[in-house]
Amino acid sequence: MLDEEGVRPAYTRILLKLSGEALLGDLAFGIDTQRVAAVAAEIERVCSWGVQVAVVVGAGNIFRGSMGTAHGMDRATADYMGMVATVLNAVSLQDALEARGTYTRLMSAIDMREVAEPYIRRRAIRHLEKGRVVIFAAGTGNPYFTTDTAAALRALEVGAEALLMAKKKYGGVYDSDPETNADAHLIPKLSHRQALEQGLRVMDSTAFSLCMDNNLPIVVFSMADAADIGRVVQGERLGTVVSSGDVLPGRGEGGRQ
User: Fold this and answer.
1) Is residue 1 very low, low, confident or very high in pLDDT (cuts 50, 70, 90)?
2) CA neighbours within 13 Å on the CB side: how many for 26?
3) What is the pTM of this model?
4) Which domains does the chain have, with CATH numbers?
5) Which neighbouring-strand residues pair with 13?
6) What is the DSSP track for 6-51?
């Protein structure tokens, strides 16, 4: 990594998608405040380089819509519960950032004026231009859409140069499911079209289509260490980079599992 004074980030505006599981730490359920504090410290460091940071948070550490539907709950109802759960994570992250003196704005796709601003695209962009970390909560505000889709949508709306997908484990795109195949290999780089043609799961299909149709680069990485966020922003090759153009996928080329 470069010395702090010599940092030249690869991006000027990013959308960081934090999975709910990335905030679990060593817990089985809920929010690990130490983990959130570590993530906040790294976001603060990235901002100190002049990078504009927007964040979308998931809620897999608290509740997923699919969890409710698996037990007979109405799909729309379960998805709304999941959206509300993302607000808990967002408020936790906002608190950790502001405890460090970082200016933030929390914007919700569901009206919760007591805790968050309503999402307005132009206002979000202005917040970023002023150097505030903008945290987007409640997904897209609509059922049947995941927070991956919310991340892709918000990244495009605010003009982010890349969508950074921080996972708790298996950070990257593999040639087969690493959960069931111990010999699965990490693919460090590929194009959107190659991922589509090979049936590789980068994110949910709606989110991926948005990124592919609009040539939005995606970096999928494992946030085993919160400092990995900064490494990716500096252009270090972690996990998998998915971008437009004809890119031949390789194995182990600068990627890290």
Assistant:
1) very low
2) 1
3) 0.89
4) 4-243 (3.40.1160.10)
5) 52
6) G---S-SEEEEEE-GGGG-TT-SSS--HHHHHHHHHHHHHHHHTT-
